[in-house]
Design a protein that fits this description.
The chain is of the alpha/beta class and 201 residues long. It has 2 domains: 1-66, no CATH class; 69-201, Hexapeptide repeat proteins (UDP N-Acetylglucosamine Acyltransferase, domain 1). 24% of the residues lie in helices and 17% in strands. The strands form 3 sheets. It has a 5-stranded parallel β-sheet. The protein has a 5-stranded mixed β-sheet with strand order 5-8-11-13-14, with no helix packed on it. A 4-stranded parallel β-sheet has the order 2-4-7-10, with no helix packed on it. Helix 3 runs antiparallel to helix 4. The radius of gyration is 18 Å and the shape is globular. The two termini are 25 Å apart. 33% of the residues are buried. Residues 175, 177-178, 180, 196-197, 199-200 line the site of zinc ion. Residues 84, 103, 130-131, 146, 148-151, 162, 164-165, 172 line the site of coenzyme A (COA).
């Protein structure tokens, strides 16, 4: 994963073209608030100014408006999108890469032993987390993977894989070149980190 900057809102801001779009874009508000909260915390740490109450108020307001909670310590990469931003919870120290799509009611969190080091997931670039997916613990969701709706993921997910179910299992792969689903009959050839469909191999 390339270096993750804190919650870039540029792409979402560009996507919402008019002022009206920006005003009513919940995903933009969600990410902007997260970024503002991060900046205020950094400023507070540097200047010791009493921003605590503003930070608390912003966290509260974000949750009231969007019904989502992104912990201030979580890092969200560039160009991420939240097509239906409601019920999303992203826990402390979670790292979300670039170009990640997160649908409604997705949870990225710890097993409940929040004080254990490395207890939060790392979601690599270009991952899609469909509605209601729950990803728990200090695991990696590999580059380009898709996690199906309603899945519970507690193990590492390899790059380009399609995983779903409870517990989530690898059910297929995306071609690393064209993105199409790789035929099951090509399964044995998927030893490399970059699966290819018949057409691309
Ligand atoms: C994960 C997903 C992308 C897989 O798609 P796919 O590889 O094309 O899978 P298919 O539709 O061919 O289904 C294959 C089998 O897996 C099952 N299946 C698919 N997704 C599943 C899921 N999330 N959980 C459990 N089983 C699932 C199907 O019922 C089917 O079972 P069958 O072979 O017994 O009939 C997709 O099913 C999914 O979860 N999409 C989520 C979409 C979403 O969140 N939409 C909300 C938008 S607002
Ligand atoms: Zn291909």
């Amino acid at each position: 994963m390339e270096t993750i900057r804190f919650s870039s809102v540029k792409s979402l801001s560009n996507k919402a073209k008019t002022l009206r779009d920006k005003l009513f874009s919940l995903e933009l508000q969600l990410l902007s608030c997260h970024r503002l909260i991060r900046n205020l915390i950094n400023l507070r740490n540097k200047t010791k100014l009493p921003f605590g109450i503003i930070v608390r108020a912003l966290v509260y307001l974000t949750q009231v408006i969007t019904s989502c909670h992104i912990h201030p310590s979580a890092r969200i990469g560039e160009n991420c999108s939240f097509p239906h931003p409601t019920g999303i919870v992203i826990g402390k120290n979670t790292i979300v890469g670039n170009n990640v799509r997160i649908f409604q009611n997705v949870t990225l969190g710890s097993h409940g032993y929040a004080n254990k080091p490395n207890e939060y997931p790392i979601v690599e670039d270009n991952v899609t987390l469909y509605a209601g997916a729950i990803v728990l613990g200090g695991i990696h969701v590999g580059f380009g993977a898709t996690i199906g709706a309603g899945s519970i993921v507690t193990r590492d997910i390899p790059p380009y894989s399609i995983a779903y179910g409870n517990p989530a299992r690898i059910r297929g792969y995306h071609c690393s070149n064209c993105g199409n689903k790789v035929d099951f009959s090509d399964y044995n050839e998927l030893i490399s980190e970059k699966p290819l469909c018949k057409e691309c191999s």
